[in-house]
Amino acid sequence: MKEKSKIKLIKAREILDSRGNPTVKVYLKTSSEESNFSVPSGVSEGKYEALEIRDKEKRYFGKGVKRAVNNINQIIAPRLKGESVLKQERIDQMLIEIDGTEQKSCLGANAILGVSIAVLKAGAQVKKIPLYKYIAQIFYGKQKTQIKKLPQPSLLLIEGALHGGNNLQIQEFMIIPQIRLFREQLRIGSEIYQTLKLILNEKYGKASTNVGYEGGFAPLLNRAEKALDLISLAIKKAGYLSKIKIALDIAASTFYQKNSYKFEDKIFTGSGLLKYYLNLSKTYPIISLEDPYFEEDWENFSLITQKLKNKITIFGDDLLATNPERIKTASKVGACNGLLLKPDQIGTFSEALTAAKEARKHQWKIMVSHRSGDTCDTFITDFAVGIGADSIKAGAPNRGERVAKYNRLLEIEEELFS
């Protein structure tokens, strides 16, 4: 196995993501196996994320990734040739050291993550086990790790803010079915999604069912309550009123202005916005809020977490950036009780795993997330299963790059529990 695990070739190329923008795809070969990974990219990126490299040339309006590709082919590949894909932590540390910067701005997080996950996938193939089981072995440190549950899907219905191209300022309106089997969760979510489509068509015309970056509908609405009322109606008409909770990605950094929040033509203080969230939670069955405040507003993150922690999970996305050190800080000040985990925010598999372990140390919930610019790669599904994440956020039950993740979860459920 030792010889079979050695890296023979790493090669990258530029491909397009789901938004039609360039991204990196990495191919890796050992003497016995081949793997590949396509790197996702976000549109609402926090300032503390690891930095992806863009070419900033005329081609692709400056969004090309030839530099990141060249960094893989010319710098990373020669250094990793001959290394064992089973030495994940060693390879990730080598990547970090070759880059030498805090936010991976030399080689680019898009280059580093592409190689890191391609190595991980090859390791699972060498071991001849499914990727989720290989991840579980690494995460739990056991050779025989029993996976007892699957993550719940946080299914996107309506998009706003940077994702939707409408006047809604909340970025994502999602539902989480509260039943046991994933295949039933997905079915119910899909039925509600299709019911909402019919409602929107009837009330606002066919243009209202155009979709945003992640497959959710993007009707021309301007108030969060209107979107929530439409979702509530769809849930009721589909017949699942008692089986659904609602999750919101607020993405408050997008409407933060000079120590206040300009939301729906009103100016809110942090405490004023807290009252607004409290009222929402009394009216609608909200189970989680993601980034309810600006990414540096530690004080108000702490206040809302203390106020709602027994009822609602407060997920940190831009606040935490999947960074173990920021998770430690958040825990000390009680700034949230949930981690939105995006491996590309931190740049290597090993660091993403450390972030998950740090969150679990504080009994936080973990939601593994896709990005707005994604691909049909299903790595995050295996990752969510392998670390025992509470939920997975992969978009609407619509668009191939989103549905691919949910379909992979159907396969895993059948493998594990049928």
Automatic annotation (TrEMBL):
Cofactor remark from the record: Mg(2+) is required for catalysis and for stabilizing the dimer. Binds a second Mg(2+) ion via substrate during catalysis.
GO cellular component: cell surface; extracellular region; phosphopyruvate hydratase complex
Catalysed reaction, written as an equation: (2R)-2-phosphoglycerate = phosphoenolpyruvate + H2O
Residue ranges of every copy of the Enolase N-terminal domain listed in the record: 7-135
Residues noted as binding substrate in the record, renumbered to the chain: 163, 172, 290, 317, 369-372, 393
Keyword Magnesium (UniProt): yes
Keywords: Cytoplasm, Glycolysis, Lyase, Magnesium, Metal-binding, Pyruvate, Secreted
Pfam family, one: Enolase_N
Gene Ontology BP, a term: glycolytic process
Entry keyword annotation includes Signal: no
InterPro entries, per database record: Enolase, Enolase-like_C_sf, Enolase-like_N, Enolase_C, Enolase_N
Pathway recorded for this protein: Carbohydrate degradation; glycolysis; pyruvate from D-glyceraldehyde 3-phosphate: step 4/5
List of residues binding Mg(2+): 249, 290, 317
Enzyme kind, highest EC tier: lyase
Catalytic-site annotation from UniProt: 214, 342
Cofactor(s) annotated in UniProt: Mg(2+)
One MF annotation (Gene Ontology) recorded for this entry: magnesium ion binding
Cellular compartment(s): Cytoplasm; Secreted; Cell surface
Assigned EC number: 4.2.1.11
Function per UniProt: Catalyzes the reversible conversion of 2-phosphoglycerate (2-PG) into phosphoenolpyruvate (PEP). It is essential for the degradation of carbohydrates via glycolysis.
Family the entry assigns: Belongs to the enolase family.
Stored HAMAP family: Enolase
Designated name of the protein: Enolase
Lineage summary: Bacteria, Candidatus Kueneniibacteriota
